[in-house]
Amino acid sequence: MSDHSTGRPVPARVLQLVVFLRLFAVAAQLTTVLLVTVWLGIPLPLPLMGLVLGVQLAASVLTLRNLRRQRYYQEITVFLHLAFDAVLLGVMLGLAGGYTNPFISLFLVPIALAASFLKISYGIAMLVLCSALYSVLIYLYLPLTPPTDHFIDIYTLHLAGMWVSFLLSAVLTTAFVGILSRIAREREESLARARETMLQNEHLLLMGTLSAGVLHEINTPLASIRMLLDEMEQSPPGDPWVQEQIPLLREQTGQCIERIRELSETGKPLTAETPLSLADFRRRTLQRWAAMRPEINIREAHGADEGFLIQHPQALAQVLVNLLNNAADASLENGQSQICISFTTQDTQLTIDIDDRGNGLPPHLHDQVGALIRSDKKNGLGVGLMLSHATLEQIGGTLVLRDTPNGTRATVRLSQHASS
Prior knowledge:
By secondary structure, the chain is α+β, with helices and mostly antiparallel strands. It has 2 domains: 3-152; 270-415, Heat Shock Protein 90, CATH 3.30.565.10. Helices cover 61% and strands 12% of the residues. It has 11 helices and 9 strands. The strands form 3 sheets. Strands 4-6-7-9-8 form a 5-stranded mixed sheet. Helix 2 packs antiparallel against helix 3 (46-67). The longest helix is centred in the middle third of the chain and has 81 residues, at 154-234. It is rod-shaped and about 125 Å long. It starts with a helix and ends in a 5-residue tail after the last strand. The relative contact order is 0.06.
């Protein structure tokens, strides 16, 4: 059946609400039947009513068992459940006074639910169904006949039933409007997150397009620098300081060329990488970063399982390099040259904390980590946090920034299974 004929998807919680209302109706109808027969002494067709209540209860149990298998249902499914409840409500009313029963106003409940959660055609169909059931109950019903010697007459009984019907309607309306408002708020929040993700992806796509050109442009001057270093190394020694810097320049130039090669491969979607143990990953990543930032003293602390497998080592290494650079820059701006990194594992989760010795987190970043933020760094592009956040989202991780007494802490959490 096509989507056009079955309608748009409806959250499973809507069907769950319908089932809970059905169970509430079963309990209320059973209580009412017992009061009417035992306390008021009015005869009712108990076997038929028991059969209707049993059918409702069985349908509710079966539906609740299946609710866990799907997150969304087609509109036609929800409509059929509402129609089922409306028909059985009509049967119960027909066995207990028909249109004279004060609880006949409960036909408004399925109409309200259909009008609120389903498209207009289903709302109109439910209105027609309930109106038809009401009309049938004008002619086909078993009358309520109190005993002649009973302390209450039929009119007083009707008024009492109207009072109870009003209370039920008030409770159901309050609960129904509250649930509807919560669903609407959650839908708005979901749309806002989707818009934020779309803007972020558009920005990252633009950055990827620009980086492709930068890769081509920067590779040529780096090759020229490497050639000049070869010539400087072969020239007669003049300035000892220059000769001391040549190995460092050569190492950093090699690091840049290697990063360009890796960056040229990261434009593709994340594919399966060869997992690395935490011990190997930590050693390779920190050694490479220390060669790029020799002016920083990095202190390690770890109480982690060395055999913990990193499923996407290249992506996670890129995140750590960005965060370590941010921490190093923040410490240097505060006149410090030390940062700390710690690795801890618990069950299947890896936690990495990076602490700087800077001036703390800028106020405008407290609620914007991962958004399209603008950095206060004078010599940076201000995209490290955004790139880190986007990369972690792809591999099932999270990034949280918070202030510490000595600076800022960046916390990365990654599940071993989520990244696989």
